[in-house]
Amino acid sequence: MNSTISATELHRSFTSGKTVTTVLRGIDVDVCPGELTLIIGPSGSGKSTLLAILSGLLRPDRGTVHVLGADLWTLSPARLDAFRLAHMGFVFQGFNLFPSLTALEQLLVLLRYRGITGRAASARAERALDEVGLSHRKNLRPAELSGGEKQRVAIARALVKQPELLFADEPTSALDGHNGQIVIELLHRIARQHRTTVLGVTHDGRLLRHADRVINVEDGVIVSDERPS
Ligand SMILES: Nc1ncnc2c1ncn2[C@@H]1O[C@H](COP(=O)(O)OP(=O)(O)OP(=O)(O)O)[C@@H](O)[C@H]1O
User: For ligand 1, is residue 179 a contact (CB within 6 Å)?
Assistant: First the structure.
């Protein structure tokens, strides 16, 4: 299977005053399309740092990241931004929704930014909300939605631009077990149905059985890489 992401020899440290914290110590990883891959590991092991480097948010000190054939960290900042906008969707722990907009408007704003307006935009936004099971909540604002519903709106917003890659950093940590399971099953279905490459970070061991693949990072290296049966 052709990888969507192919990363080699990733190293990253952070310097704060005289203290240097080495976070990633030479990570090689390939991530496949049509799969939900979850990165797990103890707190501080480097999971979010790895996700940020693979998604073009944080530059590695060393190593390369190829995404859909592009050598990510050789792109200029403007090209990198454009690449991320065109190909990647993001879902975060805190939902990041606009408080004053309805569920539908959250998606329309993003489409307008990409030059898609009018009926075409509405049809696309409604389809994405339908996909996450929220058509009936489309006119509600974040304060009127439950945590699980807010995260599903955030996923619909990521989906509406039909990205090849979807990154999710702790997408379920603000949710209870039931809603966490709904969200992770949804991410899995998105991976399968759209052949999207879905890569997430999680603390929640209960979610691992829903993943196609689980990569365990400890102290900046991959210590196991398994496919739950
Ligand atoms: N911008 C930064 N400046 C300094 N240190 C940082 C920065 N970002 C991360 N770190 C440090 O890097 C280490 C790894 O952080 P990272 O967020 O990748 O871990 P994590 O495995 O995702 O942790 P958690 O599960 O607690 O979210 C931590 O010790 C953290 O303090």
Answer: no
